[in-house]
Each structure stands twice: as C-alpha cells, then as structure tokens.
C-alpha cells in the first residue's frame, strides 16, 4: 500500500503550467530523488505532497494514520528555546508521562495502594512503548551526527547561524521519525562528515519513505533507488540511482534519435514513391501507401536539451611547472589555532581537492596562497609566474549595486556592449536579464556572473571555494566538463564529492580531532581516499575484535585457573580434615 498517491495533479502559476496531470505514488521504503532544473517546480511538488499547497487540480491521498515530515529551505524554530529544548519538544509525550510517574512515585511514598501501583505500572508501560528514556541518547546522537558539539546544545536558537538553524531543523525532523520524509536540499549546510552520517542514517536506520530534492549527485547515488525527473511539467520515472539514470537517459536519447531518423527516412521514401506512382500504373499501391502513412503513429522529434551555461577556461600564460611548496606551515588567530605542520607540494596540472569541516582553515589557506594572509609558522612558496583566478564561496567579488552587464563589462571595457551581451548569453543571461541588479539575483544567478568574470581572467591557477554551491545539476556538469579540459592547476574546496571524484588527482584533508585540526595529503582521487578510509576503519574493527578475543581468552583462562585453585584448596582441606 502506498504512503501517498497523487492523481492527475495540475498546478498553474498563470500563465505557466508548473505541474501537468501528474499521477505518481510513494511506497514505504521508497528512496526517490527528485531532479530538474532550477525553477521547474520541484519545491512546488513537495508542497503539494505535504498539503502545504492546496490550490491545485487533482487529488492527494495520504494513507490513514501516516505522517509526513517536510524539510523546507526555510527553518521554522522557536527563537527563545535552546537547541536541546527544541529537540525535546519531539518527545513531549514521554516527558508528560515522566511527570505523571514522578507525581505517582511521590504519592506512593506515603500511600502504596494497589490502585496507585497499577496506575504507575500502566504509565511506565506506555512510557516504555514510546521508547522510554532512550530519547536523550537519540538527541545527542542526531545532533552530534549533524555537526553540533555538546556546548552547542544549550545555545539559544536566536544565536545560531543560518546554516546551524537549517541543521537543527533537519535534526528535529529526523527525531520525529515520520512515515515519509520530504527533503528540499538537505545537504546544503552539512560538511562531508554530516552528509555521510545522514546517508548512513537513511540507509540503515530510517525505515520510512524518502523523497529528496538535491543537487548533490554523490548523495543521490548513495541513497536513492529511483529518480523522478521533472521536465516540461511532467514526471519521468527511472529505476536506479543518479548514475544509473544518466546511463538510461543517454540510451533513451540515442534510441529516440535513431527511431526518429529512421521514420523520417522511411516517410521520405514513401512520399517519393507516392508522388512518382499516384497517377501511373501503380496508382492503387501508391494510394495504399498513402493511407498507411496517414494512419502511422508519428515518432516525435527528440526534445533538445534545455540551454545550459557554456564554459571554457583558458590561460593567458602557461606558468611554471613548480606551483606551490608548503613546509610545516601553521596558522592561528590570537589563541585560535586553525592548523599546524601543513606540508605538501603541488605541480603544474595537479587538481587538489580540499576537504574539511567549516572553520578548519581551508579558505584561510587560499588567502595565504594569494598573499592576503601570512603563515604564523613555516614556509609557503608560490611560483613567481602564476596568475590566480579566485572564486569565493560568499560571492564577495560581486558589486551588489551593479547591473549584470556593467559588472562583467568592467573587466574588458575595450569590448562592445554587443560582444559582452553575446558573452553573457553563454551564462543564460539574455534580453533584459543583463540589466538586472546583482543584488536582486538568486544565488545561482550570482554564481553564473562570478563564473563569467572568472573565465575572463585567463588565469593559470584556479582557486575555487565551493564553486557548485548555488548551481543546479546541468550547470555543475557544465563546470565539470570545462574544468576537465583546463590544462593548468586547480585547487577546489568543496563538499561536492561527485565533483571531487571527477576531477581531483590529489586530496588535502583538514580533519577535526579532540586535539585540534590535523591535516594530511593524500596522493589519489576522492574514491581512492574513501576506499582507504574504509580500509582503515575495517582494520581497526578487526584489530579491536582480535583484542576482545584475546581479552576474553585471558579472562576465561584466569577464571579456569582460579576455579582450579579453589578445587585444589578444597581437596586439600578435605584431606587435612580426614
């Protein structure tokens, strides 16, 4: 039985139809990835399923007694609560039962009547059925998994950052354990550890259905078993994860193109025959063929892919082969130590993927490479002929008051307006879009402007700080393709593991430990790094199991030895008494 069923759903924002006669269902245990271009209606569909949006045609049927949990991109938390208090709201039933048990326990100190004992036992059974006191452990585990430390638990919601509030909303939703989870970009504010924790939680612990909107292709590969592609207001359903979807989509495209070309060739051939013979000796045959053509089901011309950004990174000068040497570099601000003893080397053509939690010093390393910060200790050498192109995570290089056209034109004032407009069209800015103010653009649009500026710099070393954060999947794929063809050196700070796995030849890891931040350099791809991490975890587990076996044998041997000594002493006492 389905958790939720959508029948003939149509949603219009005049004059556009966003969802057109959609009929789909979600079953218990389904893991579905909802993909599509920005603005195609993915969030609208989530709101329809969760019944937030009711101004629609069609029907949404939720199975009786089932609950839906919806993670929107806008956190909804009580400002005056602490983080822990907000999580405790999920378990208000257990808390209320605990209050009753406490009151009954106080009464029983002076009056242990059978009625009170029975009532206490009944409430305790109800409390146990809801999970007992285990919720404290659940809260700690979920908050910890999503990147909160114990001191954070007592912080008021109103002092948390936007990213922390988003993570708190996700934590609360997971603790509620609904029957169906609807996620809208759940990994946006998670670091790699948080994303991996969420993947593991959904794969091993959560038993309900999941429908997730995400641009994180690695996450989709790890979690989902089905893809819903929202395209032209319709949903196309594909079995498998995101990578399997890409394979199937490509095969479909090839088959459709071949079928269309074959039918077009056949139709042309038949039309030629009909024209040649309609008035001749083979008139009847020509008429028959014409009737068959009229009745033939026409294969539609395959749809052209929607336009996406066109990127091509170039370098003005080649630069040297020695790019960067970092030897025992440390960095701290006042008493805060970011990292120590950072050592690695980079040669021309290397693609360095940089991983680590927020606040560990990754962006500071970029500023040190650019000369904007100096090492506290150690030596950082940068090649003298390098020209850097820097993409900032916070889009700091954009003048929010400028129009798109003037923001880009400032970099090459020698070009004509038409040349700049033609260039901006490659980044999907056409018509009056070029006159929009930067401050009024979406995050994705501002990212495209920053990429447009970056390409004009003709750098021979790229420093990219979370370049895919605001991009949809087609734009991410276009960026990957351009970077794959770029012949020079690239540093990429990113939580986008699909991007790292596609491009990185070496990995620089910033790892948070109890003692501080450890850094280590891995000479290999992200997939190889991940495999190495899994191997180490496996070996540690094996070593721990072996130690436990050895300890168990020692304990058993000690127990047997003690038992043997006791029996010997007992026998000696018996002999002595005789």
Number of helical runs? 17
CATH superfamily of the largest domain: P-loop containing nucleotide triphosphate hydrolases
Taking all residues together, what is the mean pLDDT?
88
Which strands sit side by side, in order, in the main sheet?
5-6-7-3-8-9
List keywords for this structure.
single chain, 578 residues, alpha/beta, Rossmann fold, 4 domains, six-stranded mixed β-sheet, 18 strands, globular
Please give a structural write-up.
- This protein is an alpha/beta fold.
- The chain folds into four domains: 4-95 and 140-242, P-loop containing nucleotide triphosphate hydrolases (Rossmann fold), CATH 3.40.50; 245-295; 322-524, 3-Layer(aba) Sandwich (Rossmann fold), CATH 3.40.50.300; 530-578.
- It has 17 helices and 18 strands.
- The strands form four sheets. A six-stranded mixed beta sheet has the order 5-6-7-3-8-9, with helices on both faces.
- α15 links the parallel β15 (461-465) and β16 (489-493).
- α3 runs antiparallel to α4, α5 packs antiparallel against α6 (162-176) and α9 (242-277) packs antiparallel against α10.
- The relative contact order is 0.08.
- The model has no long low-confidence stretch (mean pLDDT 88).
């Amino acid at each position: 039985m389905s958790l939720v069923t959508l029948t003939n759903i149509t949603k219009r924002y005049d004059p556009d139809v966003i969802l057109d006669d959609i009929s789909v269902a979600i079953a218990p245990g389904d893991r579905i990835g909802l993909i599509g271009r920005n603005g195609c209606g993915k969030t609208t569909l989530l709101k329809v399923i969760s019944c937030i949006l009711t101004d629609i045609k069609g029907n949404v049927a939720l199975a009786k007694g089932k609950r839906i949990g919806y993670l929107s991109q806008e956190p909804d938390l009580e400002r005056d609560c602490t983080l822990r208090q907000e999580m405790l709201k999920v378990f208000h039933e257990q808390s209320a039962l605990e209050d009753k048990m406490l009151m009954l326990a106080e009464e029983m100190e002076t009056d242990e009547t059978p009625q009170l004992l029975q009532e206490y036992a009944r409430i305790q059974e109800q409390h146990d059925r809801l999970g007992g006191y285990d919720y404290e452990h659940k809260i700690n585990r979920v908050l910890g998994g999503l990147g909160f430390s114990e001191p954070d638990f007592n912080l008021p919601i109103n002092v948390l950052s936007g990213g922390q509030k988003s993570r708190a909303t996700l934590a609360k939703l997971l603790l509620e354990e609904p029957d169906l989870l609807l996620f809208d970009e759940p990994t946006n504010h998670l670091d790699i550890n948080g994303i991996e924790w969420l993947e593991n939680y959904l794969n091993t612990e959560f038993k309900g259905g999941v429908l997730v909107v995400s641009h994180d292709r690695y996450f989709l590969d790890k979690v989902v078993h089905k893809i819903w592609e929202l395209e032209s207001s319709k949903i196309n359903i594909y079995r498998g994860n995101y990578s399997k979807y890409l394979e199937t989509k490509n095969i479909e495209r090839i088959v459709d193109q071949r079928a269309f070309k074959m039918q077009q060739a056949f139709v042309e051939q038949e039309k030629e025959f009909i024209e040649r013979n309609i008035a001749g000796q083979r008139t009847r045959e020509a008429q028959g063929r014409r009737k068959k053509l009229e009745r033939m089901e026409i294969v539609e011309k395959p749809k052209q892919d929607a336009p996406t950004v066109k990127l091509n990174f170039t370098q003005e000068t080649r630069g040297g082969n020695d790019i960067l040497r970092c030897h025992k570099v440390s960095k701290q601000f006042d008493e805060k130590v970011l990292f120590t003893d950072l050592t690695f080397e980079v040669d021309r053509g290397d693609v360095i993927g940089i991983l680590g939690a927020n606040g560990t010093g990754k962006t500071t390393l970029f500023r040190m490479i650019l000369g904007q910060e100096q090492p506290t200790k150690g030596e950082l050498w940068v090649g003298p002929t390098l020209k850097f192109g820097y993409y900032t995570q916070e889009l700091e290089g954009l003048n929010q008051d400028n129009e798109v056209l003037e923001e880009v034109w400032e970099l090459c004032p020698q070009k004509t307006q038409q040349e700049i407009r033609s260039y901006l069209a490659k980044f999907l800015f056409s018509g009056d879009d070029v006159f929009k103010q930067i401050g009024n653009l979406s995050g994705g649009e501002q990212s495209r402007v920053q990429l447009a500026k970056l390409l004009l710099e003709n750098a021979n070393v790229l420093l990219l700080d979370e370049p895919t954060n605001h991009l949809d999947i087609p734009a991410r794929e276009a960026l990957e393709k351009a970077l794959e063809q770029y012949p020079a050196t690239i540093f990429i700070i990113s939580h986008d593991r699909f991007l790292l796995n596609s491009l990185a030849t070496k990995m620089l890891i910033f790892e948070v430990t109890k003692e501080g931040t450890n850094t280590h350099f891995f000479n290999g791809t992200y997939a190889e790094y991940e495999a190495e991490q899994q191997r180490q975890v496996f070996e540690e587990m094996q070593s721990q199991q072996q130690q436990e076996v050895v300890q168990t044998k020692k304990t058993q041997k000690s127990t047997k030895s003690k038992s043997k000594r006791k029996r010997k002493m007992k026998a000696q006492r018996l002999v002595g008494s005789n």
